[in-house]
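Duplicate of #3305? Posting structure anyway:
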């Protein structure tokens, strides 16, 4: 089953003879100093350009040129020149002037441009494929999702289907005159940083796979090869984006699906570890004694299949149905959710003890099931986190909406543009890698 949404549906050469000395320094007739000076000036301009763009993108309400000058310490003339370049590149837009309380011309508020520049986030998960385009204002402007069962699937076939979905989204962007700056792909497994390969996705049955090589055989993605990342890390990025103004900025994010993914967010940034493999909470072992006397990983006790099995429901049953059955007071469903919540809480306590954060966010299916998991999770956190008598761990439900990994992927690409806006402003657009 494919679901589609169209745009707007919802409110992401210098001169001078040079030679190189032994240490790589420029020498010659003085041109080297001019080159160095020009490079520094260019670097400063790019830095200030990004600074102004971030002020517009991160502001809770539209800001004026004067507001930006006050906040950044740049002169009004410098800010105006930089804003003009961002306007010309379609990265910011001007709103209707607002009368100022002081004498002078009305202030012109600035906001992120809508529907001019976008990135595409894609995802392969166990039970769906999806593609989502997000613009600089953080709006979803086009989306396609296909539901299915991709356990033990052929990666070439699945990635071809994903490429077809992406082709539809890219075609809509092109028809609407939207500039595509890059793509990202979320995968449920271990991914070497940025380009892969995918080392293993246990629930898909994929291992040591050149995903980028396979997916870029499709013409629509040949020129926009995706950056790769773990789906929970990208979902956590979307969650951090939603919470960037209201906090908390540091939290453990846990995403329940057939598999269980996790991510550590510190001061708004994902802690990926040496290879980008951190957060694999679903594969943590829950011991060999007590309630989990047979041993095994968290997914065995709290994954989607485990919860449905414990409730006596078929594994193809939607999680929303499990919530409905629990709401009726069904003993088997409530027992399965309590047991799963206890396992989840124990695993999360281990993470909190190690990384020292005070907040846990429940995402994926756990967001839907939170009313039936919360007490058991908190009980384990209170009991097992050594610092809880002095600083109790808070628990909340994810706010980034459905399919957050797709949003997080698009946001990761857009962030690269914000970090280096010159790739668009200078008229030398290239795909952001």
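Output from current build:
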């Amino acid at each position: 089953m494919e679901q589609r949404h169209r745009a707007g549906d919802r409110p992401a050469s210098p001169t001078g003879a040079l030679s190189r000395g032994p240490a790589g320094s420029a020498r010659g007739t003085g041109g080297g100093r001019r080159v160095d000076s020009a490079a520094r000036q260019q670097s400063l301009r790019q830095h200030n350009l990004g600074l102004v763009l971030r002020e517009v993108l991160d502001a809770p309400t539209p800001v004026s040129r004067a507001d930006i000058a006050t906040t950044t310490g740049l002169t009004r003339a410098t800010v105006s020149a930089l804003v003009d370049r961002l306007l010309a590149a379609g990265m910011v837009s001007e709103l209707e002037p607002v009368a100022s309380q002081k004498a002078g011309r009305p202030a012109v508020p600035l906001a992120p441009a809508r529907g001019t520049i976008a990135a595409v986030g894609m995802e392969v998960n166990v039970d769906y494929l999806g593609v989502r385009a997000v613009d600089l204002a953080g709006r979803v402007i086009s989306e396609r999702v296909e539901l299915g069962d991709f356990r033990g699937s052929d990666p070439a076939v699945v990635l071809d289907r994903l490429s077809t979905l992406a082709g539809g989204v890219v075609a809509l962007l092109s028809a609407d005159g939207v500039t595509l700056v890059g793509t990202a792909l979320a995968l449920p497994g271990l991914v070497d940083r940025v380009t892969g390969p995918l080392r293993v996705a246990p629930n898909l049955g994929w291992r040591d796979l050149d995903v980028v090589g396979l997916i870029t055989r499709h013409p629509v993605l040949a020129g926009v090869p995706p950056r790769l990342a773990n789906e929970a890390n990208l979902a956590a990025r979307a969650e951090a984006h939603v919470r960037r103004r209201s906090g908390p900025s540091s939290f453990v994010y846990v995403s329940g699906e057939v598999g269980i993914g996790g991510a550590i967010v510190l001061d708004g940034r994902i802690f990926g570890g040496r290879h980008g493999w951190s957060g694999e909470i679903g594969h943590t072992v829950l011991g060999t004694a007590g309630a989990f006397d047979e041993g095994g990983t968290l997914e065995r006790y709290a994954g989607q299949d485990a919860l449905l099995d414990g409730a006596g429901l078929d594994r193809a049953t939607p999680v929303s149905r499990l919530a409905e059955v629990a709401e009726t007071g069904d003993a088997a469903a409530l027992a399965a959710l309590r047991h799963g919540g206890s396992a989840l809480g124990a695993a999360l306590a281990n993470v909190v003890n190690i990384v020292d954060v005070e907040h846990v966010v429940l995402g994926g299916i756990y967001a839907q099931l939170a009313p039936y998991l919360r007490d058991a999770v908190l009980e384990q956190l209170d009991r097992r986190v050594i610092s809880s008598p002095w600083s109790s761990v808070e628990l909340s439900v994810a706010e980034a909406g459905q399919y957050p990994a797709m949003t997080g992927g698009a946001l990761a690409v857009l962030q690269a543009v914000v970090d280096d806006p010159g790739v668009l402003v200078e008229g030398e657009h290239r795909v952001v890698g």
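Confirmed duplicate; merging threads. Residues 11-29 have pLDDT under 50 and may be disordered. The first helix runs from residue 31 to 58.
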